[in-house]
Amino acid sequence: MEYYSKQISTLIEELAHLPGIGQKTAARLAFHIIDSPMENVNRLADAIRDARANVCYCKKCLTITDSELCPICADEKRNHHVIMVVENPRDLAAYEKTQKYDGVYHVLHGVISPMLGIGPQDIRLKELMQRLQTEAVDEVIIATGSSLEGETTAMYISKLIKPAGIKVTRIASGVPVGGDLENIDEVTLLRALEGRVEL
Amino acid sequence: MEYYSKQISTLIEELAHLPGIGQKTAARLAFHIIDSPMENVNRLADAIRDARANVCYCKKCLTITDSELCPICADEKRNHHVIMVVENPRDLAAYEKTQKYDGVYHVLHGVISPMLGIGPQDIRLKELMQRLQTEAVDEVIIATGSSLEGETTAMYISKLIKPAGIKVTRIASGVPVGGDLENIDEVTLLRALEGRVEL
Question: In CA terms, which of B32, B62, B142, B160 is 20 to 30 Å from A97?
Fold first, then answer.
């Protein structure tokens, strides 16, 4: 990459370290940055540094935030007796966007994956068990993904919690709303059939 | 985006301003940045700021660089009597990657596009004409893209330069090497036929 000046090459290299950004996209982004007003560029650089420097985990649900408690855990209007267990903060955000869930969350920061050598001790499961002992929880909704790892994790958590007499539920698998049946894989179709509900 | 902390939301917003980066990709990048070591994050932020702060145009060919002359214009081993005219610094880099071109460049920073209201005065054409008057140039190779705008620009430049008695050439259009004929559009196939060479 010596066709560009040293600093532009450095920028392209740094951008190409980001996930899903190859050399060509990195070059495109770099040229966009170079063409932008200095003010915008400073804002981007500051946002990157600040977000990383001030990030911490919510003391309760372990989502990433910049204060001791995340806005959801700090909100007294939410139902703190229902905990939804999610894989990561992005999944939490996905459920928040529905604006229909008023319970709280617990973020595992991963899923159990024997293939990748990730065991139950590598995700934030111990913290969940501690919460169940200290907080009055009526229901734990397991909302890990429907991948093999997500299912394994859900089964594992459910077996761990059930003996404590707490209600454990799992989000439904099935046909996505608005999806054509013909484009959906067989496993999902079978799940949808197994999980059918009476009308 | 209030499901994340303020600073993470700000970062996602800033990243989403980059071209080709939507909200979801921006969130993915933001979480990657947050999970990266502080050292790497500082390097990225510095690279962004430095590249923008120190960028300037090469005094001769107008490509972006961080010194008065770009490495190519400053290289005495290159043939300064042949100038390749390209649309932007990325196209320059594409030709440099071939490692076979030993002339110099002139970067137009755009193409003539009547549709978008971009006329000959809006690209760095005046600077090219000035170079042709002060430098001893044997050949101008026009390497603008083969889009309608690229072709228009090539025609315009060629008409401008030819009266000065300088040889003007255009890079060949045709079938890309390794391409299947059946997947290539008719215009390209026609061009390839018109531009056929004797073996």
Answer: B32
Range(s) of the domain holding residue B96: 64-198
> What's the number of domains chain B is made of?
2
d(CA B23, CA B16): 6
Say if B70 falls within a structural domain.
Answer: yes
Place of tokens 């408690």: A69
Compute the average pLDDT of residues B100-113: 94
Q: Quick check: A190 and A167 in contact, CB under 8 A?
A: no
Summarised one tens digit per residue, pLDDT across range A14-72 is: 999 999 999 989 999 998 998 899 999 999 999 999 999 988 899 999 998 888 899 99
What's the whole-model pTM score? Answer: 0.71
Q: Give the Cα separation of B65 and B92 in Å (integer).
A: 12
* Contact call for A3 and B72, based on CB within 8 A: yes
CA distance A83 to A138: 8
CATH code, domain with B29: 1.10.8.420
Q: Is B131 in the same domain as B34?
A: no
Where does a domain end: A31, A54, A77? A54
Check CB contact under 8 Å for A4 and B64.
yes
| Record: contact A89-B11, CB cut-off 8 A | no
Residue of A nearest to B88 (CA): A31
pLDDT band for A187, please (50, 70, 90 cuts).
Answer: confident
